[in-house]
Amino acid sequence: MEHTVTTLPATREPGCPFDPPAELIDARRHGPISRYPFPDGHEGWLITGYDLVRSVLADPRFSSRKELMRHHPLIDFGEIEVPPAPPGEFLLMDDPQHSRYRKPLVGKFTVRRMRLLTERVEQVTADHLDAMEKAGPPADLVTAFARPIPAVIICELLGVPYEDRGSFQDNIDKFLGGETGDEELFAAYTATQRYLAELVAAKRANPTDDVLSDLTDSDLTDEELQGIALILLSAGFDTTANMLALGTFALLRHPEQPAAWRADPALTDSAVEELLRYLSVAKTFMRTALEDVELGGRTIAAGTAVILSYNTANRDPERFADPHVLDLGRQDGGHLAFGHGIHQCLGQQLARVEMRVAFPALLNRFPTLRLAVPAEEVDLRPEAADVYGVKSLPVTWDV
Ligand code: HEM
Fold first, then answer.
1. Which one of 48, 63, 144, 302 is least enclosed by Cβ atoms within 10 Å?
2. Where are the alpha helices (DSSP H) in 264-321?
């Protein structure tokens, strides 16, 4: 009998904020692919196994095009046509359109370029830790540390004046936080587009030393530049911010792990990869089959929607030994937290630099860091959020 998952998003077990929902772990136990009947009646699939998720991501017969994503666990589009992604928003496009936008950006996010940023990330991190220390305990780690560090860096990289962050940060929260109604979401999107239109016009008039100004020296239109800026701003800080906050929460719940990290700074690279695997904050993406595809012994018919569960794939026992254990020294590698294939995260080297700097700096600055509230009271994002994480993280330390 084919395994069927009936309700998405499934909910996490109380007291297990870091583990994928039990229903998804159970689905993986039945096999790497399950049936998922969407609320609109469409018969789709849910993929929870590592190998199958990876093979879909590498297969051009599965599309990321927005206009094909007509089925959604939470939205019934009915007869409404889903429009294609606006110009520049290449996350929801296939090649060749996708690579037209991605190509000019790749060179700006290389390992070498991002390493050159390390000193700046160290400075920004130190400034925020100084402010946190000066204000004294308790603190909300989200507002004092996890959000502002990636926000300052992505603003500087793109050439967005940091004073303007209020104009887009709250709106981006609304896009990705999973708790905003349609009307408010539309208003947030419109306000962000208006802001980005002004920003692109300003860069064209007075180019400065940043990614967006560089791109004005290309054949991309203003509308396309706005779309690119939106993707980079929204993908570029909320994900890392949630990794830093949820990652700190996870470390504080497994105190032997940060103790080992403090004692051995050489753990940093594997520790960051393990936190990425273990938490997989960008937990679910969708694809649509462009033709009939044989997958895991099933035929995925052309036009069928496939939900890829990155967080369950990253806990697949056939790929990772003791997958539900947080082990900062783990050497398995190859997690899917940044995806795989043509859409693999463009900003992954930036995110790595930020986490490799910020986590150890925090742990070393506050050796007695601990939660200031019982773990059950930490305010988590709902499963409906595109990016999982904590809304706030009250912490304290000895002075
Ligand atoms: C820890 C932090 C991050 C995580 C977990 C993450 C995760 C991901 C994932 C899973 C995808 C693939 C989506 C898919 O398969 O359809 C992706 C794509 C992307 N990410 Fe990230 N990301 C992070 C940080 C960043 C940063 C800092 C940037 C800043 C530039 C960024 C920019 C992008 C862009 C532009 C794409 C779209 C790539 C494409 O479609 O070709 N991400 N990210």
1. 302
2. 268-279, 310-313
